[in-house]
Write a structure and sequence with these properties.
The protein is α/β, with parallel strands linked by helices. The chain folds into two domains: 86 residues, Ribosomal Protein L15, Chain: K, domain 2; 184 residues, Four Helix Bundle (Hemerythrin (Met), subunit A), CATH 1.20.120.920.
Length: 331
């Protein structure tokens, strides 16, 4: 992959959504990966894949991970049925302009509040709410909307709804619909995480949610729950417990495709953060031209304006280059 390819962010909307695997071995095969399990071997063209979720019992080779990274596919190591994320890789982009914009917006109280209000209003896609409402009012309206979504799904499917309940250490004790919801939401979080990272934003710098490494993922995922995961989870729970989690993952994948969510995630993030539409394709900021050469160091911060990295500031006559920055250079 050339440095020019790294300078331009991948078009996340053009990819497939996600693939969950468990109890298998993954290695590289040409420009793809191959998945080997008890049933045989499947070749996966990972250049079109947005997210690969690795469940329990998976072994993966270094070459396969390198292939996935080169293809811009986010790799997530997760727990049984994909309901916990233990670790994730990084996205394909090397630009920091969008992340810096997100951090500045988060740190300024006024702009932070604007994003919070906008995110709440974006959830009301069917009936946009007017201006002049307080944050407390929007929060209350959102709570009513979610409660009605659960009640409507329960009526339509005949699945009894006793309330949301999920215990991390007692997965099997949850009723079928709660297990279905947890599985569906995990898939949704994974694909939103992949979209956020693909556009160069941070999954940790949340606005409504805070304090978690996936806070911004939760902010964005909440835009789609009543549309995708709630109805999907209830429909699959109505079909009984047999193979429930697997059915939910496949149904979520279909719902994500049918709702064209991959086309919407990055524009929705841009809209929430007031990033120009072209920003996710070519994010310009004080980055010192780092992405023109992927191996070059980034700039150095200075209160008077950023200065070039990779420069020895010890003086022209000083032969020691210990003052030079090696950030971004090979080890």
């Amino acid at each position: 992959m050339s440095s020019l390819d790294l300078h331009t962010l991948p078009k996340f909307r053009d990819g497939w959504s996600y693939l969950y695997v468990e109890h298998c071995r993954i290695d590289r095969e040409d420009k793809a990966i191959s998945v080997h399990d008890a049933q045989g071997r499947v070749v996966v063209p990972c250049a079109s894949l947005a997210l690969l979720m690795l469940g329990p019992g998976v072994s993966i080779t270094h070459a396969a991970v390198l292939t996935l990274v080169d293809c811009g596919c986010l790799v997530a190591w997760c727990g049984e049925q994909g309901v916990r994320f233990y670790a994730v890789g990084m996205g394909e982009t090397r630009q920091a302009g969008n992340l810096l914009h997100q951090a500045r917006t988060w740190a300024d109280a006024a702009s932070h509040m604007r994003v919070v209000m906008k995110l709440y209003r974006m959830r009301f896609r069917e009936a946009p709410v007017g201006e002049g409402l307080s944050l407390a009012q929007l929060r209350g309206m959102e709570g009513i909307r979610v409660r009605e979504s659960y009640a409507r799904a329960s009526r339509e499917t005949g699945v009894e709804w006793k309330g949301r309940s999920y215990k991390r250490d007692s997965w099997r004790s949850a009723d079928p619909v709660n297990r279905a919801l947890s599985t569906a939401n995990s898939c949704l979080y994974g694909i939103c995480h992949a979209g956020i990272v693909s556009a160069g934003f941070s999954p940790a710098i949340g606005f409504i949610h805070t304090g978690k490494m996936l806070s911004f993922v939760y902010d964005i995922a909440d835009l789609y729950k009543t549309e995708v995961t709630i109805p999907t989870a209830f429909r699959e729970a109505a079909g009984g417990m047999q193979g429930l989690e697997g059915r939910v993952r496949r149904a979520c994948r279909d719902a994500i495709r049918e709702s064209r969510m991959l086309e919407r995630i990055v524009p929705d993030v841009q809209r929430a953060l007031d990033v120009p539409a072209a920003g996710a394709e070519v994010a310009s900021d004080a980055s010192g031209g780092f992405d023109v050469d992927a191996a070059a160091p980034g700039g150095l911060w200075d209160p008077q304006g950023d200065v070039d990295g990779g420069v020895n500031f010890g003086g022209e006559d000083d032969g020691d280059d210990s003052g030079a920055s090696d950030a971004g250079a090979p080890g």
